[in-house]
Write a structure and sequence with these properties.
It comes from Lyophyllum shimeji. Helices cover about 30% and strands about 15% of the residues. The protein is an alpha/beta fold and about 525 residues long.
Amino acid sequence: MHRCLTMPEIQALVFGCIQSWDLGTVTLARLTRTCTAFKETALDALWSDLETLGLLVQVMPADLWTTTIEKGKRDQPIKILRFTRGLQESDWSRFDYYALRIRKLGFRTRHPLPIIYIHDTALKALIAFRPDSPLLPCLREFKHASYYEPLHSTALPFIPSLLGDSVTAISLWLLAVQVDELCGLLSSLSQRCPGLSSVDLELSDTPTTPETTSVIERFVCSLHGLKAINLVPSLPASSPTLLHLANLPELRLCHTLDIPFDANVAQLHELFTAISGRFPRLDNFMFHVQALDQAASIIHSLQRPLGLLAVEVPQGLERPSIQPFPSLAKLTRCFAHHACASSLKHLSIDGYNIEFEEVPSPDAIRGAYSSLFSLRALEALDISLPFTSELDDDWFAEAARAWPHLTSLRVYHYHQGRPKLTLAGLIPLVVHCRHLHELTVIFSAEPFDLGLLPPGVCNLAITSLDLNDCPIDSPALVGECLLAMFPNLTGTGYVSHDYEEEEENWQAWSMLEELLQERIEGSDDSGEARMDVW
């Protein structure tokens, strides 16, 4: 073996590129037998990520445990491990040997080995045997999702006992947790994991009360090295915890803010203004507001070179939110001279529940959305706002030239009348946006002269289109045009919200889908599709 391969750093790179789910678990085992110098690094790679503790417990003596196939809480068959006797100190040698190698626990993997879930009684027995020592002393990242777990579990209070001071990232998705249970859990985590830099906490079916908010606030304020935080439900804008987050020197990701209608504008400006040194390293920011002009004020105040910005406005309303159209123009114009104009790569504005007080002129609509062209580095745009169906071929042509690095474009909303964008209007996106692989737009599907498409220019990355409310004429000809632009297209995913025209349009798109399927089925052995279907 070359001496360079004896270096642990080089070995780590080698095994980091060999994924067991791609090449089979035997690959790493064979390498360890081929060269004993690979053994430790290969074992580190094999044991680095585990979805459950099942595999680890199975290295303990075989007479200690047994597995059975039972029905989970969704009636699916799952394999459950239980202990058959009490633990002894001699049972732990192999467990400790492999436990030191585990870096991530609870994250879904594509590992080919079957998943084995540990019964609560077995987990509690493991923790009770060594109450003062973490089971996984070198663990760095931990995830627990109650509502995805197939077992009915009562082990939530015992989770901190798995963890030690090496943990830097925790993701907890909890279902119907009690306040005292949440308080005990978060209090233990802040003591056992003082080095936490990433927290993802989502509470589902848990009432938002002053008590739960207070518990979460105390937990967050105990963490001074945070780099990323996501809280669901979000904290209110008046929370003193937000000031703590705003003053953290390394915070880069913040998904935790909910702005009510009656929020104090001056207070918001003070919280987010860059002049006061708030959020000095913020790069990824997501927040919920109830009005577009609130979002505009926050973005205008936060003069930071953001990389991702996501705004949901308004949040959680069952009925439409009526807002003035000028507030949209105010929001989009604030990007023109913003610090993120040359850095923002991902922008999402979800105004699904918005309706405007007045019907604006076509020029006003175009002007409001054209202000986004000042974002020169944009790679992903996702906007669900009224009147996006009024944007025509010229607007999308300008967008394609303004955003050549686009990988994802989603511009959609329930439209009023026939959309102004035509199928031919997608040509500039094919020509200028060479990295585009996701496209969701509303257009009028009318066939165009294929001579409009430059020779040899097409998009091979897009295999399906997510189409909403797109009227269609001449499905066969439209299919020919779509395939000229997107040769690897296999489906359209058409969805309609216009019930009066749904049946006719549905039949036309269904015909196009059938033609696509015929084309796929007619592919020859070389993989080249039969174009004569069209």
